[in-house]
Structures are given as structure tokens and as C-alpha cells.
Amino acid sequence: MKTLSRIKTVLLLVSICSLGSGCSQKANQAEKNEQLVRTYFGEVWNKGRVGYLDKLLSNNYINHTPSVPNPRKGPEGLKPIVLAIRKGFPDLHYEIMDVIATNDRVVARVVMTGTNTDSLFGSPPTGKKIRVNQINIEKIENGRISEHWRVTEELELNRQLGLLK
């Protein structure tokens, strides 16, 4: 009876340890995914280093909410968008306010700030400063961002640019 009880205890401990290891691996992957997204905002959007996109995005990256119609897949589709937005807002900055990371997704609530001193997708500069919220969802596969969804306070953005009263 004592032996059976010990065997049960050992099996229970082995089960708990293997569960803990799986949880630890998932937490570790979530941390890596969060760092990937922090690098994406820090290097690409805040500093304009579009070359980083080749390392951060998958070749089949899909932007589900692009600023232009039908961009190419992969890093080459996002590079001109980043460059255009940074041209319109040379002091563009994203501050990450909240992050929720899992083993295959990262949700980032960010505040986008900048001054519109140059043309933006054909619109003339307004000289106005902006501060708007965004929610970004990034799907991560094999250590790279493979899909992107974004919701921006578009109405507030247009108000701050003086395009709406």
C-alpha cells in the first residue's frame, strides 16, 4: 500500500513538473513575441529603420488594415507605408502603453504622436500635432510577424489634423 502511494506521488510530481515546463516554454515564447513587437515599434516606426522589417516580418506577411489599398505581401509591402507615414510625420513616435502577449499573438495598445510637416498619401501638410490611440494585433509565426490588424482613432486623427470640425 505504501509503495502504491509513493508511486502515485511520484507520478503526480512528474505530471506537475512537465506541466510547469510547458507553461514555462509558453511564457518564454510570449516574452520573445513581446520583445519582437517592441523592436518593431522601436526600430521601424520610431526610428524609421525599415531594413529591420526583413528580420521582423515573414515573407508572406499580410497587413489586414493597410494605409494604402492592396499592398504587397511581406516586408516589401510595408516599407513604403512606413516611409510615407514617417515622411508626413518626421517626428513620429509610438509609445507602447499596454502589451498582451501569448505564444502566437501580441496585442499592443500604443499612443501615436507626431507633427504633420510634409505630405501624407497625397494630402498637403497641416503643420498640426497629433496624439491618437491605436490597438495593434500581431500574429507571430516562427519568430516573425506574419499578420497585422490595427484600429486607429481615425476620427480623432482627422480632427487633430484640422480635416474635420
TrEMBL record:
Protein name according to UniProt: Ester cyclase
PROSITE patterns recorded: PROKAR_LIPOPROTEIN
Transmembrane segments: none
Keyword Nucleotide-binding: no
Record's keyword terms, sorted: Signal
Top-rank taxon: Bacteria
Annotated signal sequence range: 1-26
Keyword Lipid metabolism assigned: no
